Amino acid sequence: MPTKTADPILSPLNEPQRRAVEHTNGPLLILAGAGSGKTRALTHRIARLMQDGVKPWNILGVTFTNKAANEMKDRIRNLLHITQGEDFGIRNPESETRSPKLPTMGTFHSICARILRRDFEHLGRDRNFVIYDQGDQEKIMKQVLKEMGIDTSELKPRAVMGYVGRFKCEAVYPKEAQKDATTERMHKIITAYSRYQKLLAEANALDFDDLILETVRLFHEVPEVLDRYQETWQYLHVDEYQDTNHAQYLMITLLAKKYRNLCVIGDPDQSIYAFRGADIRNILEFEKDYKDAEHIKLEQNYRSTQLILSAADGVIEPNPNRPKKKMWTERKEGPKTVVHEVSDQQKEAQEAIKKAEELKSEGLSLNDQVILYRTNAQSRLFEEACMRAGLPYRIVGGVKFYQRREVKDVLAYLYVILNPYDTLSLLRIINVPSRKIGKTTIEKLQAFGANEGMPLWDCLNNVERVSGLSESVQTRLIRFTELITKLSERSRKDNVSDLTMSLLDATNMEMWLRDDTEEGETRWENVKELTTVMHKYDALDPETSLTSFLEEVALVSEVDKLQDAKDDALTLMTLHLCKGLEFEHVMIAGCEEGLFPHANSSFDKEQLEEERRLMYVGMTRAKTHLTIMFAQQRMLWGETQVNAP
Hints:
This protein is of the alpha/beta class. It has four domains: 15-121 and 211-298, P-loop containing nucleotide triphosphate hydrolases (Rossmann fold); 130-203, Orthogonal Bundle (Arc Repressor Mutant, subunit A), CATH 1.10.10; 306-398 and 562-642, P-loop containing nucleotide triphosphate hydrolases (Rossmann fold, 3-Layer(aba) Sandwich), CATH 3.40.50; 402-557, PCRA, domain 4. Helix content is 47%, strand content 13%. It has 26 helices and 18 strands. It has a six-stranded parallel beta sheet, with helices on both faces. It has a six-stranded parallel beta sheet with strand order 11-16-15-12-14-13. Strands 3-4 form a two-stranded antiparallel sheet. A hairpin with a 2-residue loop joins strand 17 and strand 18 (639-642). Helix 1 (15-22) packs parallel to helix 2, helix 2 (38-51) crosses helix 3 (66-80) and helix 4 packs across helix 9 (208-221). The termini are far apart. The model is unreliable at 88-98 (pLDDT under 50).
């Protein structure tokens, strides 16, 4: 008799994973502990649905990072033997275009951007919007506060943006927020929020939170659009559900309302983003929202030793109102968890580097080791210790490639080519490279625009009407607008890399950047690296090539790129950034009252619970070695403090 071939979808699974994969219709809650194979359960579940005849375009997978989405796509390809590059080909009866062989998978932001690119016009908005990053947002808010006559030492733009972000995470618009403004300060903040939204709309721009908020508004205000997406995505999957905020919860609830085939997976013990608006109640109360939900626990850990798991369980156990689960592993043996006391923070850094070097000499690569800390400010001493020891290191969350000045300049050109009403980007490039268009000229243009009710781009197309501009300045401004118009026309027929090469040639960007210095050479190399990134978009239709590239740039995450690092180097990062990663050796620094757990948690029970979850996340990143460090005394904010461990 022929040997029966093992089912590649079901055979690698343990019993709870198999139950999750074989569940088909109705709501499903998967409580997946750290290292319990949740990605496997989720991808095998989606592959099984497709194997059983569910069309790929009827499945949606939502993740929190691009890396997670891409990893899931790769696993589904392998399970179903879909060749890379052949992701399209099935004819969708509801569409005139080729349809995907893979489901739609991406982050909340990328999926919402896709929805708005198609349907934003239903809300009276142009779908060729740009996405403003944190730096852009703060510049706009700085402008708002200046217009309101508010001293930025009284209200800092970043602080106001923090409030704006929280309002948006709660799906609260300025008009609703104003009802709860009980102090003069809060009234100013909400007025700034309202003005900020108007300036974004004038620039045809959205910030990250708007992508989700405007999608929710679209679904509420245009039922036929919601109905179309409900019909399209009949099977919904949401990863890291404990990290969703209220706006994301509303979006998913609306999409799931018709067919109720909603699978959420997460771990309340790893909910660490309350400061970003994450609401742990979304996962804790899932079974209240869906009383017929099936509930499956994944408790077998495939990452850490039992000693590490037991220590982590001891940290999280005191938290009340958490679904009880007991993590276990077949990896019973392993080194004991080390709790290392040092005299001060300098000694802590020295000992951490010494430990990393010892394990490296025993054959453990630096790439497999990480130092985790509670605040960014702690990184400096570890950096200095690495430099003194000649130890290669990388900081996750340092200066990002896409934040470098020359890269942002080129991106700003592309944003303006796509949308010339993006005033922030227009102001950035109007004198880059230098065209002798100075601050005074720009102020005259802005004053004219304010009087005439014109955005800056329209002012540039009416320079002959602007008083006080010399003929030579007018000529330079006209040349600039002609350049943008010409490149905008090219964008409709050229792919993004060809368009960018035309832009660089037309502006003499290379000569301007290189300026015969080593720094200039580096700047030009960064721009060349940017064009390298663009090539993967060249196969797309010219009308979508530029948009798709700019969208990915706006949504890229530094953590997504960590696993692509080739050089052997010790990783330094905050605990909030380590989620979803794993290392053979984890060192957690600064475990002292007032630092970690943070001083704010001393007076707030919920914050203390969050600090425990943060520690739990850090500890469960470790596969084999776990080192916990604390100092007898530490210089904090200019004062030496003695804190209890």
